[in-house]
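It would be a great kindness if you could assist me with a short task in structural biology. The matter concerns a single protein, recorded as an amino acid sequence and a row of backbone structure tokens. Could you please explain, in whatever detail you think fit, how the structure tokens follow from the sequence? Thank you for your consideration; the sequence and its tokens are set out here:
___
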Amino acid sequence: MDVASRKWLVSGCSKYGTVGLYKAATLESVDLVVTDNGFAADAAIAIRQAGTELALASAR
């Protein structure tokens, strides 16, 4: 990740706020978060206020 010009995180909204056994990066270290449109509005605001782009994709 150190050599990438842009870092994207692609994940379903159900993963946000959960704790895992391994952390690859902090949320602040990514440029863009792509998730589904079930993402909570307050979480979306917090991500955008942190300076990270957020793209909401519609789930089929």
Notes: The mean pLDDT is 87. The chain has one helix and three strands. The beta strands are 8-10, 32-36, 53-57. Residues 41-49 form the longest helix (9 residues).
